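Look over this entry.
=====
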Amino acid sequence: MNTSETVNVMSNFVNGMGADYKEFARLMGNEHRTLQQNFTKLCVAWLKHLSEVEYYDLRNEGSVKFAQSIKDQLDNAQLPLI
């Protein structure tokens, strides 16, 4: 699966009203520790991207402002691949 296909799968998952984020997190917690670290890197990269967004509207304002509020922690995240 390439990056574009992965984004499509994730977009479809979060687009549904019934997306179970807690169950997703629980299941991700059962994955291999290295995969958990890599997934966290993905989440940090997404939040860093959001923290730099200049134009947003009410649909993503909360996400952008949250990312901006933790930007320093994101920039200093130490997530080595071991």
Observations:
- The radius of gyration is 14 Å.
- DSSP finds five helices and no strands in the chain.
- The helical segments are 3-15, 21-28, 33-51, 61-69, 71-75.
